Amino acid sequence: MVTLLEAPPRVAERPRLPEYGRSADEVGALMDEAAREDVRWRDGRVAGFLFLGGEDVARVARDAYLRFFMENGLSGVAFPSLKKFEDEVAGMAAALMHGDEAVGSITSGGTESILLAVKTARDRARALRPDVARPTIVMPRTAHPAFDKGAHYFGLTPVRTPVGADYRVDLDAYRAAITDDTVLLVGSAPNYPFGMVDPIPEMAALAADRGISFHVDACVGGFFLPFAEQLGRRYPAWDFRVPGVTSISADLHKFGYTAKGASLLLSRDADIFQYQGFEFANWPCGRYRTPNTTGTRPGGAIAAAWAVLNYLGADGYRRLVGRTLGFTRRLVAGIAAIPGLTLYGEPDMSVLAYGSPTLDITAIGERMERRGWFLHWTWEPPAIHLMLSPGHEAIVGDYLADLAAATAEVAGRGLTGAERERTYN
Fold it and tell me: What 8-state DSSP symbol labels residue 388?
């Protein structure tokens, strides 16, 4: 099981700064020792946390990051190279997402992008709808927790609405939750739990009718869906093609395959973007303005994003997306063929969840973990969660073989002929 928040060590156990420095070799050996229990991500046995576009892509990102390792994205005057990289990355993404007038900035990750989207909507409402006293955010049950974090930080009330039996947005419930105090509506492309693109046109229309900001969380899909569409896949319109969409978040370090941490927040136009930043002048050093929540920003992450986008180009992204869609189809078919297992929802890309209406999925997962797989979970319903990138292509057969064996063990039955063939061949 994954625990994301660990308690700090007790005071008596806290390490102290060594009196004398260690050698570089000793430091490296200690780091290697510390990493011995880390997940085996290089062999594809974790379906999340990392997005593997290939060793060549990783090398481009790594080289660019190290080239600008010490530079600081806080100042485009001191480092016009980083400003060029950031502006061009935002411009390329805006074009992909049909935002002719869209502007934006690189953030430290999807959470910061979402926090800034919440802050932008709040400040925009303060300027345009000063009568709102208790601002709320309306979002489906499947929206990312970062929106609740943003509500907590910026003084808004989050309102989550139910999804239907098919795990898609219940539009009637969503509509009913909107009030005169609502300042932000949210949709996902796709949602993280089930990998489904929300009905963004219908949802954004509700926002446009009432002058409410609408944010599309495309942190997962922003650098996947455009290329899947170019390959012929069809999704509900989800980007700036949709009237009413005011902002989009898209993670560069997910299916953009750039170095961590890098995401984008795009606003439809400069009028909306003006509410994103922070400005202060009442101190001895004069005007201070940042577009993000951070001040200092690692130049390496900005440079790596620019380098990878230029290295891959649209053709490279189409190639990686096409491969991922292909082996995801094989994996989905293989899971569906194992007696007792079922897929939840109708995954639109390479994010999915599967469980069992008759078997203990936790027991199946424990057996998968014993076989060396690092699992992610959903709890409503209980399910194993996968987010797949090209680096997982080579493990599809092994994964299905182990899953078939683990499921058969829990079911107390022998393997079927097809399962036995997958397991031993």
Answer: -
Distance CA 356, CA 373 (A): 19
Non-local CB neighbours of 125 within 8 Å, separated by 6+ positions? 132, 135, 183, 184, 213
Q: Are 349 and 195 in contact (CB under 8 A)?
A: yes
C-beta neighbour count of 83 within 10 angstroms: 15
Q: Which residues contact 180 (CB under 8 A, 6 or more apart)?
A: 131, 132
Distance CA 393, CA 220 (A): 19
Residues 6+ apart with CB under 8 A from 283: none
Per residue in 135-155, is it b (16+ CB within 10 Å) or e — as a string? bbbbbbebbbebbbebbeebe
Q: What is the pTM of this model?
A: 0.90
Give me the tens of pLDDT residue by residue for the chain, a chain 425 residues long. 445 556 666 666 788 899 899 999 999 999 999 998 888 777 778 887 778 888 999 999 999 999 999 877 788 788 899 999 999 999 999 999 999 999 999 999 999 999 999 999 999 999 999 999 999 999 999 999 999 999 999 999 999 999 999 999 999 999 999 999 999 999 999 999 999 999 999 999 999 999 999 999 999 999 999 999 999 999 999 999 999 999 999 999 999 999 999 999 999 999 999 999 888 888 888 888 888 888 888 899 999 999 999 999 999 999 999 999 999 999 999 999 999 999 998 888 899 999 999 999 999 999 999 999 999 999 999 999 999 999 899 999 999 999 999 999 999 865 554 544 544 33
Q: Dig out the tokens for 335 from the structure.
A: 């899971």
Gyration radius of the chain over CA positions: 23
190 and 223 Cβ atoms separated by less than 8 Å: no
Q: What residue spans of 215-286 are helical by DSSP H? A: 225-230, 270-273
Pair type for strands 103-107 and 263-267: antiparallel
Which residues face 137 on adjacent strands? 158, 184
Angle at 189 between CA 330 and CA 125, to 5 degrees: 170
User: Do residues 341 and 354 touch, judged by C-beta distance below 8 A?
Assistant: yes
Give the dihedral of Cα atoms 255, 259, 265, 266; nearest 10 deg.
-70
Tell me if residue 112 falls in helix, strand or coil: helix
| Segments in 51-178 forming alpha helices (H) | 55-67, 80-96, 110-128, 146-154, 171-176
Structural contact between residues 350 and 387, judged by C-beta atoms closer than 8 angstroms: yes
User: CA-CA distance, 206 to 218, in Å (whole number)?
Assistant: 19
